[in-house]
Design brief:
Helix content: 40-55%
InterPro entries: SusD-like_N (IPR033985), SusD_RagB_dom (IPR012944), TPR-like_helical_dom_sf (IPR011990)
Strand order of the largest sheet: 1-3
Largest sheet: 2 strands, antiparallel
Mean pLDDT: 91
Radius of gyration: 23 Å
Shape: globular
Family: Belongs to the SusD family.
Number of helices: 23
Strand content: under 5%
Subcellular location: Cell outer membrane
Keywords: Cell outer membrane, Membrane, Signal
Protein name: Membrane protein
Structural class: mainly alpha
Length: 555
Amino acid sequence: MKKIFYIAFVFAVIAMGSCKKSDLDYVPQDQLSSNSFWKTEKDATLALNACYGYFSNAYSNAYDDGASDNAYAQYPWESNATPIAAGNINATIDQGYGSRYVYIRRYNYFLDNVSKAPLSVAMMKRYVAEAKVLRAITYYDLARVFGPVPLLKTAYAEPSETAIAPTSEADVINFAISEIQSAVADLNPAIVQSGRITAGAAWAFLARIQLQYQKYADAVVSAEKVKSLGYQLFRKNTLTADDLTDDFSSYLTFANAADKDKFYKGLASYEQQFWAANELDNKELILASQNISNSSYDYGNGLRTLFPSSDLGGWSSITPTQDLVNAYWNKNGDAFTPPAANVRATNYNSGKPNAAYNDEFKNRDTRLYASILFPGTPWGRINAGFSFAWGKGGGNNSVTGYNFKKLVDPSPESSQNEWDGSQDFPIIRYAEVLLAFSEAKNELSGPDATIYAALDDIRTRSGMPAVNQTAINTKEKLRDFIRNERRIELAGEGQRYADIRRWNIAIDVMKTTYDITNSIVQTRVWDNKFMLMPYPQTAIDRNANLKTAQTTKGY
């Protein structure tokens, strides 16, 4: 469904109302009458495609990592991640409240009117099911960020109709869950259709929602439904000469040729799952925000600009923290013990690292080399002979000392297009489902063979050893292991923001961040009211019913 929501956008906006003001405050004057629309199957298809605009530019989910302990977002004009991480949170910030209601209005308009279109019974059911799941996902996103929110289930004619009391967070989530459950039977069971809501995407999102709200038994069932549909982790089983371009021999000790082969296959499998060349047959992608380059409708994936270093044409907008780099395991699967910050700074030697500095990056998790640019990292696939050197200071250089390599397609088609990468961005992939299954089942009943198998699937794909079941043998130990594994596997994909809140660890991890010279990057402050974001003041001005809930949240 490449760009399908962009192609439909202009027409569908006219059909469903302009919504340019983003906060549901005006009745559109340019909408077509529902009596003149919905005359053909194409009308219904265009209207549904416009609903999928909710997933356009989903690469901006990476900013949620910048609002967590995973990353630092250095430009406050690009997103709210910078003030959120710093604790400068108040009602002047709109963390997606207004924009999400724009899409809820579209879904409701679609659901109220699609029955007028001449669709077959099967297509009508599928279209309705897709719109219901989109609406459920959007309400889940609203509730997990803001807590109680107005629950609007039908289209409206007057703005005053939206000025209702917020529904409790629990009731909004129960509505979202029930909507997905009622829709899933009418969805396409195809697994390689990552641009649309399929049965697999619905079950995967159910698992995500249920895990977020500690409905562990239900999350296990939903994850098992996805596991039964034929999804699998992306693996590259045959290496090419290009896959061996980057020489990591100075960082890794290989026991033999087979050990080296395992590393390079793990490296290729993990990093190349996000490349445009592997999208069409990638059975790991359950739902993705799809992009093409050189479109006359919109730009493509912006991470090609936001992630890389300035010498690669990037802006270093969102960069890994030292704490994230420390989280990657050792090659043998053990936890990494980092040096003291002052020792690291001494070893870095003002940009002339000594041997002790390089030791910090030796024999680490394969995903570290696939995901993070640290000083000395080779990346010949993006630029022949390239080796990352941190340019401390301004000029679109990283502030932390690291850049993200993950999620950046180094192919010429993508790497030469500023702000216009052709690769898709994963909204939900099978690895997350395996992690959700593992976490939920461990919380229910502790370690068992099915949990270890799911985790080993993820780890061996990346060339890492299986879980040490002798050492990781209690619910508490496995919980800590799964949480760190989830952090590593999903780094940069925007899940960490929600994770540190649902685990109630934000107070422990949202600490002042430092660069590799032990200089302060950002002073961070945590207050427990930050578990939920405030409603934006513009929303309160339009709906006085939000005032009490705002006060209850502590704002």
